[in-house]
Every structure is written in C-alpha cells, then in structure tokens.
Design a protein that fits this description.
This protein is mainly α. It has 13 helices and 5 strands. Helix 4 packs across helix 7, helix 7 crosses helix 8 and helix 10 packs across helix 12. Bound molecules: tryptophanyl-5'AMP (TYM). The site of tryptophanyl-5'AMP has 26 residues, from strand 1, helix 1 and helix 7.
C-alpha cells in the first residue's frame, strides 16, 4: 500500500466533548487527505462501565453522525462500529496471552476507573488496553491520532507489537506511532483546570459538548475557573488561563503563546468572550450538519454497513496471518 494507515476511535460513553473534538476529531478530518483512515465508534470499550442498552444503541448512532458532521467523509475513510468487526475481539484474546498482568496493573486509566467504579471492577476494565492494542494492530496501523491521555495505552500497543515481532517474525505487526495535535492534545476541565476535560464528568459545566447550544457554550466559558492575578499569559501554574488559550489557539490555528500576545492588555472577561465566540463559530456547522445526518437513518445504516464490510476484509487478513504464525491449523 502506498499510503500509511491510520486508526482511531472514540468510545461511546457520555458525550463527545470539545476535548475529544480538538484532541482527536479535528485532526482526523485533516488526515483523510493523506492517509488510509479507519475511524471506529469503539462500542465494545464502552461496556466496561454498565450501560443502558437502548441509550447505548442511540448514542452509538449519534457518535457516528457526529463523526460525519465533523467532516469525516465515508468516500475517503472507513467508518464503522467496532462490534460489527468481530476480529477485534478475536485478536484481543491472542494479544492478551502476550501481555503481562504487571503491565496492565500499571495503567493509570485502570487505576482511576477502578477507584471511581469500586462496585464494578470487572476484568474488561483491566484488559481494556489489550482490546485497544487489537484495534490498532489489526489494521497494521502506522499512526494513531489521539489526545495525550492515550499515550500510555499506545505505548502498551507498541510493546505488545515489538514483543510479538521478536517471537513470530519482525514483519508480524507494524509498530504504531502516536500522532498528537500540535495544540490542544490535553484540554482541561473548565471547572477544575488541573484535570482533563472528560465526557464522564458529573458536572456538565466542566466540559463543552460539541452539540451544546451557543448560549450554553457562552455560559460555560464565562463560568470557567481562572485565577486572581488578571494577567493573560501562557505561563506555568496559570492552569485555567492556559486552558482557555489552548482552546482558542487550537480553534484559530495558532499556538497558545501567540494567542496570549493577541490578548495583551485585555482582561479575563474579554478573553472569555472571544474564546466563546471562536468555539461557537467552530461548532456551528457541526451542529447544523449533525441535525440533518441524524435524521437520515437510511444513510447512517449504509455508512456503517459499508464500513464494516471494508474493515472486516482488512481485519481478516491480519487475523489469519497471526493465527497462522501462532500455530493454529489453517482453515480449509
Ligand atoms: P476516549 O473515548 O476517552 O477519547 C477519544 C479521543 O479524544 C481524546 N481526548 C482528549 N483530547 C484532548 N483533551 C481532552 N480533554 C481529551 N479527552 C479525550 C482521547 O485522547 C482520544 O483520542 N481508549 C480510547 C478509545 C480507543 C482508541 C482505540 C483510540 C479505543 N481503541 C484505538 C485510538 C486507537 C478512549 O477511551 O478514548
């Protein structure tokens, strides 16, 4: 293949936030021109936390519609639901037999999530990074566009690939690399700017949903926590202001430092107003397109059916290769 392969996904839990949009989706759109891109709604991942089945089904379709509304083009990229391509779960088992308990226990996301869901520390929560490695390695992926919070998971996927290449031949798996947004790889909560903006935040003022109405976006940004020194600068320790500058920079295509220069001499009120305006204008076309796409169930079905068919064909190639190398009898 001439072009490099890209894989990424968002898990359909909570809602798609401005963090997901800036850290991942916005970059996915740009990458479609230059690469073979596979973008999945990684539904299998979402059930590590108990889900209401009807709400999950609806949310999955809504996430797919959002991928399309953000500009992912099914003529250029392959879009699919992870659960429709059964090879993900199959490869995950093969990889889990090459992953150590110690490696999985070190995952910070596992530690965080098991602290939050003490009543449901299931085995899936523990082996989640192996499934994520399977998602990536199944397509012999070169690049994985993600936010900074996925670095540790990606490192594990690389370690598994390298380990299996040593054992079964250096051409077993492509060893993937992370691809991070130049600005905004880690967007922080508006209410607690020392922790990341998260779709599972119980306080909706902490995150912006990409489908929030303009007045809601303006209100949330106005309430964003800053500090008391009143100086707009991108500096160590100024978490809230840095976050607003990162958001502004990511949306307007400049570094947060450069954005800070543009605000010289102004107050936090002006900063918040302009950040809100920029975010509202960035998300306005997404909201409008989303409303059309979500209403067209026939189109959505066609997109995910075609996507799963194409993804399965690619996935099957890798799965058969790995089964073969591991010593299973070839299917007739
Ligand atoms: P998830 O669903 O938590 O997030 C989806 C993508 O959004 C990025 N992201 C952020 N970027 C910047 N600032 C933030 N505050 C922020 N919050 C989230 C994430 O880094 C991610 O890129 N395990 C993954 C889903 C996954 C996956 C994969 C990703 C499953 N298999 C294979 C890539 C390749 C996750 O939970 O992402």
């Amino acid at each position: 293949m001439d072009k490099k392969m890209i894989f990424s996904g968002v898990q359909p839990s909570g809602c798609v936030t401005l963090g997901n949009y800036i850290g991942a989706l916005k970059n996915w759109v740009k990458l479609q021109e230059e690469y073979h891109c596979m973008y999945s709604v990684v539904d299998l991942h979402s059930i590590t936390v108990r889900q209401d089945p009807e709400a999950l089904r609806e949310r999955c379709l809504s996430f797919l519609a959002l991928y399309l509304a953000c500009g992912i083009d099914p003529e250029k990229s392959i879009l699919f639901f992870q659960s429709h391509v059964t090879q993900h779960a199959e490869l995950s088992w093969l990889l889990s037999c090459h992953t150590y308990m110690g490696e999985l226990s070190r995952m910070t996301q596992f530690k965080d999530k098991s602290a939050k869901h003490e009543d449901n520390i299931n085995a899936g929560l523990f082996t989640y990074p192996v499934l994520m490695a399977a998602d990536i390695l199944l397509y012999q992926t070169d690049l994985v566009p993600v936010g900074a919070d996925q670095t540790q998971h990606l490192e594990l996927a690389r370690d598994i690939a390298i380990r299996m290449n040593h054992t079964y031949g250096e051409d077993t798996f492509v060893v993937p690399e992370g691809y991070y947004a130049p600005v905004g790889a880690r967007i922080m909560s508006l209410q607690d700017p020392t922790s990341k903006m998260s779709k599972s935040d119980p306080n909706p003022n902490g995150y912006i949903w990409v489908l929030d109405a303009p007045e809601v976006i303006a209100k949330k940004i106005k309430r964003a926590v800053t500090d008391s020194d009143g100086v707009i600068a991108y500096q160590e320790g100024k978490h809230g202001v840095n976050n607003l500058l990162s958001i502004y920079g990511a949306v307007t295509g400049q570094t947060p430092q450069k954005a800070a220069e543009g605000f010289a001499g102004q107050g936090y009120g002006a900063l918040k107003t302009q950040v809100a305006e920029a975010v509202i204008e960035e998300l306005r076309p997404v909201r409008e397109k989303y409303a059309q796409i979500i209403a067209d169930k026939e189109y959505l079905t066609k997109v995910y059916k075609d996507g799963a068919e194409k993804a399965s064909a690619l996935a099957e190639k890798t799965l058969e290769k790995i089964q073969n190398r591991l010593g299973f009898v070839k299917r007739g």
